User: Which sequence fits this backbone?
């Protein structure tokens, strides 16, 4: 009969089983799902920041808070230092994709050099963030601490909103910085594995793609932190 | 069946980022960031209302996010099912943004301190 012949026919659509419908390797798919959950965490932080800012009558002026370039000038240069930080992070994202690209061609030496460049970029970013945190700490900002009344007048904000700003700034950039730090550590581990020839023996550099996803995600989060803390 | 089967690898390889394309995306990201700087530092407060300014910043940020996720994270070249799974989930974030900002706005009008 026609119908039984149809029933016996083996289905070959992507969702009929026997193969990965997403056609990505298991570890890479799990990295995507992890990043999705991480994106929800960061979103929750930033949305809470937004809600706080909406609820307050005043808010510290970002052009006044972030107007120093550590080691160069203390005043009158808003956005310059954070611009450098943003450039460093985008640049290290580029070197990461170049490492992935070299991995596709199974070029071990190129992968190593691009990974080294990525790690240096990550460390430079962390250094810049340490400088900025130190500067703000000297100004009087910290978790649960704000500058004196004279400074607040300059910022154009009251004590409550300034405190909320300080807490959220250190929490969110701290959580992001922690991601950068773990990213650097993971990149170093992967670099050593590449140098030891682990991926060469495995025949593919998929692991570079997986850590690459994580690294780009860190860059992605920074794009949003940059906008909502420094620009808006 | 091994998880690291080679068929899968070959399937993934066909659409990859060339070096030229990587640098093109980099220059797009750089250009958007420079544009944000020009608006922030070059355009005086009076010439552009706050709402317009912030809207432009957010739109440009979403553009940057698109380029990072689509090209650097390679999502554009994945299977349609994976793209919709990841991107579709963000409807919940949009919902949370609307909820929380509405709440914040309400508090702004009703707080006594």
Assistant:
């Amino acid at each position: 009969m026609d119908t039984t012949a149809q029933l016996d026919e083996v289905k070959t659509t992507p969702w009929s089983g026997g193969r990965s419908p997403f056609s990505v390797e298991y570890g890479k798919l799990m990295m995507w799902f992890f990043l999705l959950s991480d994106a929800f965490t960061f979103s929750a932080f930033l949305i809470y920041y937004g809600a706080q800012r909406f609820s307050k009558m005043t808010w510290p002026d970002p052009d006044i808070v972030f107007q120093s370039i550590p080691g160069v000038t203390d005043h009158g240069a808003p956005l310059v230092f954070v611009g450098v930080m943003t450039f460093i992070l985008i640049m290290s994202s580029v070197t990461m994709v170049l490492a992935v690209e070299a991995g596709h061609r199974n070029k071990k030496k190129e992968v190593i050099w691009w990974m080294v460049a990525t790690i240096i970029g990550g460390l430079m970013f962390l250094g810049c963030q340490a400088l900025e945190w130190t500067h703000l700490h000297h100004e009087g900002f910290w978790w649960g601490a704000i500058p004196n009344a004279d400074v607040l007048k300059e910022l154009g904000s009251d004590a409550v909103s300034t405190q909320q700003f300080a807490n959220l700034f250190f929490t969110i950039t701290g959580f992001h910085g922690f991601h950068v730090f773990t990213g650097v550590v993971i990149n170093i581990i992967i670099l050593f594995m590449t140098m030891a020839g682990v991926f060469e023996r495995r025949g593919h550099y998929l692991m570079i793609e997986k850590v690459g996803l994580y690294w780009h995600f860190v860059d992605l989060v920074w794009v949003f932190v940059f906008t909502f803390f420094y620009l808006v | 069946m091994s998880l690291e089967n080679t068929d899968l690898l070959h399937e993934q390889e066909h659409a990859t980022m060339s070096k030229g394309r990587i640098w093109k995306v980099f220059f797009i990201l750089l250009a958007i960031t420079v544009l944000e700087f020009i608006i922030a530092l070059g355009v005086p407060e009076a010439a552009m209302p706050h709402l317009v300014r912030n809207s432009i910043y957010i739109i440009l940020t979403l553009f940057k996010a698109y380029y990072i996720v689509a090209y650097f994270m390679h999502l554009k070249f994945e299977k349609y099912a994976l793209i919709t799974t990841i991107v579709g989930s963000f409807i919940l974030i949009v919902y949370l943004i609307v909820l929380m900002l509405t709440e914040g706005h309400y508090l702004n009008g009703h707080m006594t301190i």
The mean pLDDT of chain A is 93. Chain A touches chain B through 59 residues (CB under 8 Å). Residues 99 and 111 of chain A are 5 Å apart (CA to CA).
